[in-house]
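Figure-free illustration: sequence to structure, shown twice.
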Amino acid sequence: MSVQHPSMAARMRAMWEVGRTANLPSVWSNCLAGWLLGGGGRRTTLAFLCVGATLIYIGGMFLNDAVDADWDRLHRKERPIPSGRLGRSNVYVGAALLLGVGWASLLAIGHQVAFHGMGLVVAVVIYDLVHKRLPFAPVLMALCRWLLYITAAGAATNGVTQPAQLGALAIAGYVVGLSLVARRESDGQWAPGRALLLLLCPIALALLARRNAVQPQIIIAAGIAFLVWTVWCIQLAVRPRPRDLPGCVAGLLAGIPLADAVAAASGSWLLATTFGGLFLFALLWQRFAPAT
C-alpha cells in the first residue's frame, strides 16, 4: 500500500498556516510605529526593517509549532505537523533559516539595529521553548513585541526616543492582556479581570505621551476607533451565549495596528489611515489563514 504524500499546494498552505501569516500586518504596524516614534528616516531602512521583522516573526512561529508538536498531537490534531502535512524536522530547519536571514536583514541596516534584533531573536526562541510551562509566558510574548518596537526605533533617525519607549511599553501591556485572554482559548474560560485593564494601556500611555500634541483630534479619533474595537472583541468573550473566545483573540490581534495608531499617528491623517488599512488588511487576511 503506497503512502500518500501531501501535494506541493497542501504543503504551501500548511506553511502559510504554521507561519500565522494573518498576523503580519500587526508586525508591519509595530515596525512603522516604532520607526515613526524614533524620528523616521529613509524608506529603504523601513523596508529592510519590515523584511527582517517578517522573517523573524514567521521563523518564530515555525519554531513554536515544532516545539509544540507533541502537545498539538493531543489537543490540536488538525495542526500541520500532527496531521502529517509538514515534517517536524523540516519545520525546525525552516525556523532556523528564517530567523537567521531575518537577523541578517537587520544587520544590513546597522550594528545597533542588529544588536536589538539579536535580543528580539533570543526572546522569540526563549518564548517558544518555555511558553507552555511558565505562568508568566505572556510577559515573554510582550517582551518580543517590546523589542520589535525598540529595534524599529533604533533604525530611525533619532533612535530610541522617549515616545518610542512609551509606545513600546503600551504595546507590551496590550499584548500581555491579549495573551492572558488567548491562554484561556483552549478551555473556553474568560481571562482574569486584569487583562481588561492591560488591553487599555495604549490609551493611557498615549494620553501621557501626546498630551501636548499639535493635532489632538487625530489621537482622539484613533483612540475612539481602538476603544470601540477592543470593547467589541471583549463582548464576544463575555456575552452569555454563544461565547466566541477564538474570535475575541483573533480580533484583538487584528487590533494591534489600531493600538499603534494611537501611539504614532498623531502627526498625520494619512498615517492614521495607513494604520487603519493595516487593521482592515489583518481582518481580511484572517479569512484565509488562522491568526492563532
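We now fold a second protein in the same way, so the two outputs can be compared directly.
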Amino acid sequence: METITSTRNPRVAEAKKLRQKKYREEKNLFLAEGLRLCEEAAQRGQVEEVYYHESLTTTQRGADVLAVLSLKTKRFFQVTAQVMDAIAETDTPQGILCVCRRSTVSLLAFDPDPGIVLLTDSIQDPGNLGSIMRTLWAAGGGGLICLKGSADPFNGKCVRASMGGIFALPVITDADWSDVSHWMSARGFRLVAADASGGTDYRHLTWPQRTLLCIGNEAAGLISIPPHAVDEQVYIPLAGEAESLNAGVAAGILIFDAYRKTGSVY
C-alpha cells in the first residue's frame, strides 16, 4: 500500500481527469465517491483503484468496506485530507473513493427479459438521470439506454444520485435513435413516451409487457425521436396550476405504475 501526500502526485492527476467525460471514455473508467457507493462497487463493480483517508479505518463500516475492496484490487492508496479534497468532487468527501471500470453493454447484445427498459432522449441534468437509474433499479428494471445528447451516466453527480444503480443496471450510452428503433422492433418492445402535453392518462394505460419507456428533455420533451415512432404517449395529470414534474419524479411514478399493472415482481 502506497501513501500519497502530495496533490501533484501523477496518480492524483490521473484520477482528477476522470471528472471529464472524454477521459472517462478514453480510459474506460469512472469515479465512485463515498462510503455507500464504494460498498456497492465492492459488491458489484470492477474496482481498479481505491483512495482512502485514515479516518475511514476508525469505524467498523469503513474497515469492513476496505476489507472487501482489498479482495477486488491491490491498488490501495492512503491519502491525506488535502489529496482527498483534490480528487473528490463533493465539498465534504467521506474519506473514500474508487476508480472503477465502466461497464457498458452493446445495444446489439442487449436482450432483457420482458419488463421496463428506460430510454432517455436528451436529458441534461445528471442528477435527474441518476435518480431515474436509482428508481429503475429499485423496481427491477431491465436496463437503461441513453440516446446521444443525454447526460453521461458515468458523470460523478449521476453516479452518486444512482446510489449504486450504475453498478446494477445494464447501461447503453450514446445510442443512435435509428439503431434503437431497429433494436426495439426486433425484440418486440413498444415505445411509450412521457409527454406533459397530453396522451393517455397513466392511470388508464395498459402497459405492454415489453415497454421501452422514454423520458425526454426536461424543457423540450422528445428531441431525437420523431412523433410517428411513438406507440403511446402518456401523461401524469396535475392538480392546480402546477405545470410539470421533475423528470426523475415523473419517471418514478410511471415505472412503478407499469410494474404494478404488468404483474412484474421487484
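Summary for the second example: The mean pLDDT is 94.
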